[in-house]
Amino acid sequence: MDFDVLKPLLISGNKEKIVLLVMDGLGGLPMEPGGKTELEAANTPNMDRLAETSELGLHEGIRVGITPGSGPAHLSLFGYDPLKYVVGRGALSALGIDFDLRDDDVAARGNFCTVDEDGRITDRRAGRISTEAGERLCALLNEKVSIPGVEVFLRPVKEYRFLLVIRGEGLRAVIAETDPQVVGEKPLLAKALNPDSAKAAEIVQEFVRQAEKILADEHPANMLVLRGFAQIPDWPKFPEAFGLKSIAIAMYPMYRGVAKLVGMDSPPAAHDYDEEIDLLEANWDKYDFFFVHIKKTDSFGEDGNFEKKVEEIEKVDALIPRILALDPSVLIITGDHSTPCVMKKHSWHPVPVLLHARTCRPDGVSSFGERACLQGGLGVRFPAYELMPLALAYAGRLEKFGA
Amino acid sequence: MDFDVLKPLLISGNKEKIVLLVMDGLGGLPMEPGGKTELEAANTPNMDRLAETSELGLHEGIRVGITPGSGPAHLSLFGYDPLKYVVGRGALSALGIDFDLRDDDVAARGNFCTVDEDGRITDRRAGRISTEAGERLCALLNEKVSIPGVEVFLRPVKEYRFLLVIRGEGLRAVIAETDPQVVGEKPLLAKALNPDSAKAAEIVQEFVRQAEKILADEHPANMLVLRGFAQIPDWPKFPEAFGLKSIAIAMYPMYRGVAKLVGMDSPPAAHDYDEEIDLLEANWDKYDFFFVHIKKTDSFGEDGNFEKKVEEIEKVDALIPRILALDPSVLIITGDHSTPCVMKKHSWHPVPVLLHARTCRPDGVSSFGERACLQGGLGVRFPAYELMPLALAYAGRLEKFGA
Fold first, then answer.
1. Against a cut of 0.95, is the pTM above it?
2. Helices and strands, number each (H, E), in chain A
3. Is there a contact between A2 and B83 if contact means CB atoms under 8 Å apart?
4. Is the N-terminal amide bond of B72 cis, ω within 30° of 0?
5. Is A202 in a helix, a strand, or coil?
6. Is the minimum CB–CB distance between A146 and chain B shorter than 8 Å?
């Protein structure tokens, strides 16, 4: 959906509330041909009862046949076509470790690497140094690097990988990577790819010069390379795009980060499902839109633990009465992608959706599961980014188009 | 559908006839959760029998979640994506009151308003004068305004609202509105927004000067403002776009007007359903495509009168044998949008469609209703503008694409 189409239709002053409950990796497959999926095997009396007065269907996160990563899958659920709204790798790295990236910040992904006496790379991953070693080197660089007029932040990610953020006024990040991607070459210069980025490129290059000296005795991590230079994207945000004051309730930084990108507030992490619903209740009067994220369904999918994934779905089912007690105008229950236990990874299979609202048209479906959703009123294999316009419609938040 | 794709595929000389029967606001909702919609509640033996050898589905007029106005909804049924084919407000006004707008005409919506002795607007709606008063003022202006070389038409719409049409050679209508949209300001000049529109803007300004004098003693309607300057859009029309000589049979001017925009002929209004079918029969040999519009299903939807809407659907069902007796190659029965009685207004819910033709593939659906259509062969939530290519295909009017 084009935001330009929706914007003139938004009704201001509407107070109807929308809840988007996302069970990560919800979609599944049977372990045996013809068997039940995780969602079908789960005992979900609350969601099944809700299904009777809801509309159901199956969405696709990116495009047919494409297995979604978590970032783009969530963008799609938030109404942003992930093929049009692309987040730079550096910015994604920042989101993933809960770094508070600001508007003019330039972020990049970094690797510690090994260079020989001529400065040529001999190992692009510095012998896969430990996470602890990576943390120590980041601390060292944070302490010693000094560039007038800018702040430089090094943050460890995992093993040899780190995040670099440069904070200064008017910085732009269209900069070529310094990683030559092969051994035997020297790290490349951080070259500005447009005139606006010249200042940032110069600062990055100064950072690299200083880092080279500071790391000189830290073999095998005696150098670093940078790529994925990026900034916070300048997208229409939830308040302008949808007229929604929004909050993300999630236990993992990645999901709060993606939600922040689209203009949602995000309180500190909850520690379990009950705390998530506590946060929902505590913030009910302050927001219009509530994104609640459940992580473990995906984790058990990746582990291939069918029983545990079923159990997590059942735990979420038990939360439904607390959510319904708040009387949301629209409640959407879905996943961001499928993570079938039998595959132990994300998959391209469409994801079950249940949309509950007062003005739902009966579709004759009375349980929440993949096979049942095939018969639902929302249809099969529709783009996930259609859910937001639907949510706005069912919440009565959109005017008629044309006379 | 892109007209450029269809055009080279059109088969000339094909005489297969297509009927598009539109029940305005057909789609509905149950009054009680889980109950029947208006169409499901209606006793429709003819349409149900037809369903057995038809393909069914549900279309969306504009885009997911968007509630269609009648104009864009009909454009979509006629095969024109209403986000690409936008009609200016002035032209729409002309259509709505059956004004015969011609190619070079410039149309605008007008308001009578009140100005003080300095010419500043004190009431943008002239105290909401009566429709009769508006009619009298339009007649007065029609009589007294005189601009050499052009014709000026004033037509009352309702209360303080009127239509202005200027007819002259080579007029173009990219002109800024004269309505400042706030009180306390003087009406603005009618400014040409491109060089081609300079002539029309000058004529409009001369009209405003004369009107100001003629209305001087008509307080509270002692001035007027104009907006929505527009012309008939230059779109591909039915004969070229689809190879169809087409006729619109409708009781209300708005629908005949939209049909005229896409190149349909439109005889004077019928007064009831039987007269509509009389017109269909009388014109059967002269046209390829017949758009038949039924208004009251929408009116009773807007009134919230479930029983009456059901009754209207049953009346339309009773017309089906007369239509089938003409042996159309393709008969499509649908609505332009949903108008659920329980909502008393247009809604975004998908609209049931029945497409009947000799080459329909059985989809196992044997009644015409929202739930039944979910199982139909045409699919769920497809764009309404896909119906025209389907109609052409089922009429055997399209060549194969490629070798």
1. no
2. 14, 13
3. yes
4. no
5. helix
6. no
Q: What is the DSSP letter of B105?
A: -
Distance CA B115, CA B122 (A): 5
Angle at alpha carbon of residue B171, lines to B170 and B177, rounded to 5°? 165
With an 8 Å Cβ cutoff, are A393 and B348 in contact?
Answer: yes
Spatial CA neighbour of A22 closest among A196, A183, A254: A254
Angle between helices B253-261 and B70-77 (to 10 degrees): 50
Contact across the interface for A400 and B67, Cβ inside 8 Å: yes
Q: Please, which contacts does A143-152 make with residues 24 or more away whose CB atoms are closer than 8 Å?
A: A144/A210, A144/A214, A145/A207, A145/A210, A145/A211, A145/A214, A146/A210, A147/A203, A147/A206, A147/A207, A147/A210, A150/A203, A152/A207
CA B124/CA B135 separation, integer angstroms: 18
Gyration radius of chain A over CA positions: 23
CB contact under 8 A, A379 and B375: no
Any A CB within 8 A of B233 CB: no
In B, which residues are within 8 Å of A362 by CB distance?
A: 30, 33-35, 371
What is the greatest pairwise CA distance in chain A?
74
Tell me, what DSSP letter sits at residue B8? G
Q: Is A330 on the interface with B (CB under 8 A)?
A: no
Radius of gyration of chain B (CA): 23
Residues in chain A: 403
Does the beta carbon of A403 lie under 8 angstroms from any beta carbon of chain B?
A: yes
Give the separation between CA B380 and CA B382, rounded to whole angstroms: 6
Peptide bond preceding A383 in cis form (omega within 30 of 0): no
Task: Give the alpha-carbon dihedral of A239, A244, A245, A248, to 10 degrees.
Answer: -100
ipTM surpassing 0.85:
yes
For residue A382, list chain B residues with Cβ-Cβ distance below 8 A: 64, 381
For A300, the enclosing helix (H) or strand (E) is helix A296-303
Q: Render each residue's pLDDT in chain A as its tens digit; 403 residues.
A: 689 999 999 998 899 999 999 999 999 999 999 999 999 999 999 999 999 999 999 999 999 999 999 999 999 999 999 999 998 889 988 988 889 899 889 999 999 999 999 999 999 999 999 999 999 999 999 999 999 999 999 999 989 999 999 999 999 999 999 999 999 999 999 999 999 999 999 999 999 999 999 999 999 999 999 999 999 998 999 999 999 999 999 988 889 889 999 999 998 878 899 999 999 999 999 999 999 999 999 999 999 999 999 999 999 999 999 999 999 999 999 999 999 999 999 999 999 999 999 999 999 999 999 999 999 999 999 999 999 999 999 999 999 998 7
Contact B342 A359 (CB under 8 A): yes
Answer yes or no: do A379 and B379 touch at CB < 8 A.
yes
A53 touches chain B (CB under 8 A): yes
